[in-house]
UniProtKB/TrEMBL annotation:
<keyword id="KW-0963">Cytoplasm</keyword>
<feature type="coiled-coil region">
    <location>
        <begin position="140"/>
        <end position="167"/>
    </location>
</feature>
<protein>
    <recommendedName>
        <fullName>Coiled-coil domain-containing protein 172</fullName>
    </recommendedName>
</protein>
<dbReference type="InterPro" id="IPR029618">
    <property type="entry name" value="CCDC172"/>
</dbReference>
<comment type="similarity">
    <text>Belongs to the CCDC172 family.</text>
</comment>
<keyword id="KW-0175">Coiled coil</keyword>
<dbReference type="GO" id="GO:0005737">
    <property type="term" value="C:cytoplasm"/>
</dbReference>
<feature type="coiled-coil region">
    <location>
        <begin position="35"/>
        <end position="100"/>
    </location>
</feature>
């Protein structure tokens, strides 16, 4: 019984709902509410389409601007990379020059020390002192032998001259 009552109420509710929708449809048709609604919806859609087209155009302009900015940014990034490479190259060259400078300074100091050592060696080294004395002796001996050779030659020339003079006087 409860089930029958429920089904009867349900059936009555469906009939009233259908009747309500039919009355609303008739009312809307009678006063052209659906047409006005359609027109209103069409106008709203047109406005919305126009707004969307404006937004699309704005987005297109922003995209072009961003592309332009992006190309400028890419160019700047490229220049930055080139400058960084150039900086690294210059830093390597500077390091090479500094290494060469340091090496030259060390070599100069070493050579100056060797020069001082070499200049002091003849005055302090026993072998150098001995050779120096020996050289002086040879110089003295050479002078004496040159003197003697010249003296001998003078005597020979005097003798030759005297013989020639004697032969002429005979």
């Amino acid at each position: 019984m409860l089930l029958q009552t429920f089904e009867a109420i349900k059936k009555q509710m469906i009939e009233e709902e259908d009747k309500f929708f039919k009355e609303i449809t008739d009312f809307s048709n009678e006063y052209e509410l659906t047409k006005k609604r359609e027109l209103l919806m069409k106008e709203n859609i047109k406005i919305e389409i126009s707004d969307l087209e404006n937004q699309a155009n704005t987005l297109k302009s922003e995209m072009k601007s961003m592309e332009h900015d992006s190309s400028q940014l890419n160019e700047l990034q490229k220049q930055k990379s080139e400058l960084i490479q150039e900086l690294f190259t210059l830093q390597r060259k500077l390091k090479v020059f500094e290494d060469e400078k340091n090496e030259s300074i060390c070599t100069t100091k070493y050579l100056e020390a060797e020069k001082i050592k070499i200049n002091e060696k003849p005055q302090n080294d026993a072998e150098c002192l001995r050779l120096k004395k020996e050289l002086e002796l040879y110089k003295e001996d050479d002078m004496e032998s040159v003197y003697e050779a010249l003296q001998t030659e003078i005597e020979f020339l005097e003798l030759t001259l005297a013989q020639k003079y004697l032969q002429e006087s005979k």
